[in-house]
Design a protein that fits this description.
With about 375 residues, this protein is of the alpha/beta class. It has two domains: about 180 residues, Response regulator (Rossmann fold), CATH 3.40.50.2300; about 190 residues, Response regulator (Rossmann fold). α1 crosses α2 and α5 runs antiparallel to α12.
C-alpha cells in the first residue's frame, strides 16, 4: 500500500465542488448524467471515458460525494457515464452492468467495494482498461496490474466525531448506527469507539457506546424505529449514522426527540439538508464526518492526466494527512459545540495527521470476534 498525496488545495476543491454540487460542503452531491447517459465539457475533445458504477444516487452522502467529483471531471472534459445498479437485490446483474460499459468502450471503470471482486475478475481480460475500486482495503498482491484501490482512513475521522459525541452527551450513552455490516463499516465503528474511550480517559467521563445495524442502505423507516428504541431503552442522546440512505431515518428520529443530536457521514449533511425540501433536519446535525470521495477521484484523474501510472497494482491510503477525511467545522458546529471540546478535537486531528496519535482500526483486529468484543466492551 502507499499514500497518495492530493494534488489539489483544499480550498480550491471546496470551491469547485460547491460550484458543481450545490451547498457549501466540499463533498456535496449534485446532479448527474442519468444512468445510461454521459457528458463531457461542451465544445472540447474528450480526455477519456469514465464509467462511475454506483448503487443509487440521492443518498446525500457517499454516492453523491463521488458524483460531485465526477461532475468536476465532466466539466474538465472527461466523458463520464454514471451507472446506477440498484441495491443488493440486483446483485446478480452487477457484472452485466460493468460488461455493458466495457462493451461501450469506457477506458476507466470506477466502482465501490461492492464491485471489487467483479472488477478483479474482469481486469485481466481487459488489459487496456483501467479499473478503480474505492472504499476497500486490498493488499497489493491481490490487485491486477491494471487496477488500483482507494482506501479512506474513515477510522481517523470517526475518532474525532467519537470525541465530539462523548463531549456532548448529557446522558452518558451515545450510539453508532450502521447500514450493512462489513469491514469498512467496522472501521468507522472502531474509530468512533476509540474516540469516545480516549475522551473518557482524558476528561474523567464514562460515556458508553451502543451500536446497531439495519442491514440495508435504503430503509430510513427501519432506522428511525431503531433510533427511537435506543432513545427509549438505552437513554442515548448522540447518534452517529453510517448508513447511506437509511441514515435519513436517524435524523428524523432526532428531530422528534428533544435533547438529541445527530452526526452525519461522508458529505456535509447539514449543507445537504439545509438546501433540501426538509431543511429542519439540518438543525439536529452537529457535524458530519467527511470522507472526500469526490476529491479523491479528481486527484486521481489529474495524476493520470500528468502521466503518473504509479497507482496501478497498488492500494492508495488517504487519511487526515491527505485532507481526505475529517469533520465539518461550520457556523452551526461552532455555535453548538463548546470551545474547549472543539479545541480538543482540533488538537487530536493535528496529532493524527502528524502520526503522533494512532487511531485503532478494524483491520488491527485478528478476527471478527475480537472486533465484536471491542464493541461490547464500550457498552
Amino acid at each position: 500500500m502507499k499514500k497518495f498525496a492530493s494534488i489539489l488545495l483544499v480550498a480550491a476543491m471546496a470551491l469547485s465542488l460547491v460550484a458543481c454540487g450545490g451547498g457549501d460542503s466540499s463533498t456535496a452531491g449534485g446532479s448527474s448524467a442519468a444512468a445510461g447517459g454521459s457528458s463531457a465539457a461542451a465544445g472540447g475533445e474528450s480526455k477519456g471515458k469514465i464509467a462511475y458504477v454506483v448503487g443509487n444516487l440521492g443518498d446525500k452522502s457517499f454516492s453523491d460525494s463521488g458524483e460531485a467529483g465526477m461532475n468536476i471531471l465532466r466539466e474538465e472534459g472527461w466523458e463520464v457515464k454514471t451507472v446506477e445498479t440498484g441495491d443488493a437485490s440486483k446483485a446478480d446483474k452487477y457484472e452485466d452492468y460493468i460488461l455493458d460499459v466495457l462493451d461501450q468502450g469506457y477506458e476507466y471503470i470506477v466502482a465501490s467495494s461492492t464491485y471489487m471482486e467483479i472488477m478483479a475478475k474482469l481486469a485481466p481480460d481487459y488489459p487496456d482498461v483501467k479499473f478503480v475500486g474505492f472504499d476497500d482495503n486490498w493488499e497489493d498482491d491481490r490487485l491486477p496490474e491494471n487496477m488500483t484501490c482507494i482506501f479512506y482512513a474513515q477510522n481517523e475521522g470517526s475518532y474525532l466525531v467519537g470525541m465530539l459525541a462523548a463531549g456532548m452527551s448529557q446522558t452518558g450513552t451515545v450510539a453508532v448506527d450502521v447500514g450493512v455490516e462489513n469491514p469498512v463499516i467496522g472501521d468507522f465503528v472502531t474509530g468512533y469507539i476509540n474516540g469516545v474511550l480516549d475522551y473518557n480517559a482524558a476528561n474523567g467521563t464514562d460515556v458508553k457506546v451502543v451500536k446497531a445495524a439495519v442491514d440495508s442502505w435504503t430503509e430510513p423507516t427501519k432506522m428511525k424505529t431503531l433510533v427511537e428504541n435506543q432513545i427509549r431503552d438505552n437513554n442515548a442522546d448522540i447518534f452517529y449514522q453510517v448508513a447511506g440512505g437509511s441514515g435519513d431515518g436517524l435524523f428524523e428520529a432526532c428531530m422528534g426527540a428533544e435533547g438529541t443530536w445527530a452526526i452525519g457521514v461522508d458529505s456535509d449533511q447539514y449543507a445537504q439538508y439545509i438546501d433540501s425540501e426538509t431543511p429542519e433536519k439540518a438543525e439536529v446535525i452537529l457535524t458530519s464526518m467527511l470522507k472526500e470521495v469526490g476529491n479523491s477521484f479528481v486527484s486521481l484523474f489529474h495524476s493520470i492526466e500528468e502521466g503518473d501510472d504509479s497507482m496501478w497494482g497498488t492500494t492508495i491510503v488517504l487519511g487526515l494527512a491527505e485532507d481526505s477525511v475529517g469533520y465539518v467545522d461550520n457556523e452551526f458546529f461552532q455555535t453548538n459545540v463548546p470551545e474547549d471540546l472543539r479545541n480538543q478535537m482540533a488538537d487530536a486531528a493535528e496529532k493524527i495527521a502528524s502520526g503522533e496519535l494512532e487511531v485503532k482500526s478494524y483491520y488491527d483486529f485478528a478476527s471478527a470476534d475480537e472486533y465484536n468484543a471491542y464493541v461490547e466492551s464500550a457498552g
